[in-house]
Design a protein that fits this description.
The chain is mainly alpha-helical. Helices cover about 90% and strands about 0% of the residues. The termini are far apart.
């Protein structure tokens, strides 16, 4: 600006349409106007910059609040999803009816059938007892075989029950690990304070775990009772048939003794 004013003054002096003092005053007036314009522009520029900075701070603040809100919503979403995932796991066939348990139940059913086939085979010996071999002693020997078979079947059932309990312990351990993993994830998401997480875990998760364990034990108890009831019923039916042959054998024994006398 100073260079332009100097050039203007030199051009006016060269033109000489006014005296130099007048030209100097004219240029001074122009310079004053230019200075006022520059000051006004600077003030306007400073005002615009200030407004832009204020708007930028407001946008940054709004964006920060939106980011925090979305991050909290994401944490809440992951929090709820993690809890729902564990609940679904606790109600899944993997926990309610695990493969190991199903295989053991199939093995128990197969074992029961095999023992029943053996029981029937022992009973069939009774049909071959006819006088003079139909004696009380012969029928009692069949009873002894049935008693031994019952004892063997009871041992088999006891072993199967232990394996069922071991399978249940394994599932219980997996459920415990899953619950620990859930708590670790919930603490990582930080959707709730630690003390609130303990409350959520105690009210929503632990009751389901306890209920699952109680239902599992109840199922094993019912399986044990049903197996024992069926085993004893079949054995008692076999003994009842054997008792009739023992009675018949005793009669034939007494008759043979009488004939010899």
């Amino acid at each position: 600006v100073e260079a332009e004013l100097t050039t203007l003054l030199e051009a006016l002096v060269a033109t000489a349409h006014l005296l130099p003092p007048q030209l100097e005053r004219l240029v001074e007036t122009e310079a004053h106007q230019v200075n006022l314009l520059i000051l006004s522009n600077r003030e306007a520029h400073a005002d615009v910059i200030a407004r832009l900075r204020v708007d930028d701070v407001k946008r940054h603040k709004t964006a920060r609040f939106d980011w925090e809100a979305r991050k909290l919503a994401w944490r809440r979403l992951r929090h709820n999803h993690a809890i729902l995932t564990l609940k679904s796991y606790l109600h899944s066939p993997e926990v309610i009816a695990p493969d190991a348990q199903q295989k053991l139940l199939e093995e128990i059913a197969m074992g029961q059938q095999q023992f029943q086939d053996r029981r029937v085979a022992v009973q069939d010996q009774l049909s071959a007892l006819k006088p003079p071999i139909l004696t009380e002693e012969a029928a009692t020997s069949v009873r002894h075989e049935l008693e031994e078979l019952l004892e063997e079947e009871a041992k088999f059932a006891e072993a199967c029950q232990k394996r069922l309990q071991a399978a249940e312990k394994e599932v219980e351990g997996e459920v415990g690990e899953a619950s620990k993993y859930l708590m670790m994830r919930l603490r990582h998401f930080e959707a709730e304070p630690p003390e609130q997480l303990e409350v959520i875990f105690a009210t929503e998760i632990k009751p389901l775990i306890v209920l699952r364990a109680e239902q599992a034990q109840d199922l094993l108890t019912r399986i044990k009772r049903a197996e024992a009831r069926q085993r004893l019923k079949l054995h008692e039916d076999s003994l009842a048939l054997t008792a009739r042959f023992e009675g018949a054998g005793k009669i034939f024994d007494e008759h043979a003794d009488a004939m010899r006398d």
